[in-house]
Amino acid sequence: MEWINEIYMKREEFGEFHHLMDDLKENPTKFFEYFRMSLKTFNYILEHVKSDLTKYNNFRRVISPEERLTVTLRYLATGSSFRSIGFSFRMANNTVAGIVHETCRAIWESLGEIHMKFPLNEEAIQITDNFWKRWKFPNCIGCIDRKHIRIKAPANSGSMFYNYKHFFSIVLQGIAGPDYRFIAIEVGAYGKESDGGIFSNSRLSKRLENGSLNATSERQLPGTNVFLSHALIADEAYPLKTYLRRPYPERSLGPEEEYYNRRLSLARQVVECAFGIMTSKWRLLTKRIKVHLQKADIIIQCICLLHNIVIDREGIPLNIEPTPNGFQQNAAIRARNRGENHAVRRAYAIREQFKSFFQ
After folding, report:
1. Which DSSP state fits 228?
2. Taking burial as the number of CB atoms within 10 A of a residue's CB, which of 126, 265, 278, 359 is the most buried?
């Protein structure tokens, strides 16, 4: 055990942070490759979390907030194990795990309200305007989709987290705006739940149903005298609601319905692109996250927030431009039978009006 302690004691002499950080700061390209963000953005995040990550110890030199942020970003960017990160930075496994959890929580609590806030009033209007300008889909306040995140099977959970893709997962459900940013996320649904059930049981669904998000107000369709509600765009797995636009079932498509589906599909690729950009940058999302569920939730939330922060401060990646056939990740799912009530009939009528608008 003594030789292990000696390795950790030489952290400031041989640890990755201490012999690499200064050189990275002198090379913007390499810094971006290492951290997935610019030095300016790194310093911006550091300034917001520094007070929460500052530790005091009279017996040995503490790990600085800058090193803690570095360790966390490398874990999120590479998906390497705590053991591997620990050897690189000369830290014990449990030290790395503690740093990652504390730092992710600090980032979320310090910057969440700044970079991920559901748009209301003027902000919502700006989003719908941008959706129309860029994607030619009116009255859209966002596109919703979900992603299964691999996790270590929780103890005594049975098959609750075992999904139809045959691995254990929790579900990240996200709403993306026209610029590939997430305007709302929800993490933690059981992997076993059906796609439709994940949404129906979510807090987001309940807030949309009771109108607390103020997202369903009506607005005039461009170039017409028709007023229709704002809504999210979704795929076939989601229910048709007055606040949810989904495609027509493929079993009964005429030319007008097919064209409507193409227009909706093109706009909906915004959220698929958002997931694609985020996953390609933060490679932990391609690996199995081996932490307790509550800690996995905050790690995933932090990654989504970092995705937004980088876009807000550095812009959209130049090589991202979806096409009608690009970023297709979800197979068509048959619509479930639902009872005919007033809200459902209204949702069908709204979709018919949107179909007519596109002709």
Report:
1. E
2. 278
CB 46 within 8 A of CB 65: yes
CB atoms within 10 A of CB 148: 18
Q: Give the amino acid at 170.
A: I
Q: Which of 337, 332, 339, 175 is nearest to 243 (CA)?
A: 175
Closest alpha carbon to 357 in 186, 252, 220: 220
pLDDT tens digit string along 195-237? 778 888 888 888 888 776 656 578 888 888 888 888 899 999 9
Tokens of 233: 């765009």
Which amino acid belongs to residue 211? G
Question: Which residues fall within 8 angstroms of residue 55, CB to CB, at 6 or more apart?
Answer: 62, 63
pLDDT 10s digits, 315-358 = 987 665 544 333 333 322 222 233 334 455 556 566 666 566 66
pLDDT in tens, 236-260: 999 998 889 999 998 878 888 898 8
Three-class DSSP category at 219:
strand
Other Cβ atoms closer than 10 A to 166 = 6
pLDDT tens-digit profile of 57-78?
A: 655 578 999 999 999 999 999 9
d(CA 252, CA 205): 28
**Number of Cβ within a 10 Å radius of residue 181:** 23
Give residue limits of the domains in the chain: 2-114, 117-357
Tokens coding 103: 């730092």
3-state secondary structure (DSSP) of residue 17: helix
- For the entire predicted model, the pTM comes to 0.85
Which amino acid is located at 52 in the chain?
Answer: D
CA atoms of 305 and 278, how far apart (whole Å): 10
Residue 141, SS3 per DSSP: strand
Nearest Cα neighbor of 210 from 202, 221, 219 is: 202
CA distance 238 to 232: 10
Give the type of residue at 161.
F
Residue 170's nearest CA partner among 145, 155, 153 is 153
Cα 202 to Cα 206: distance, rounded to the nearest angstrom:
7
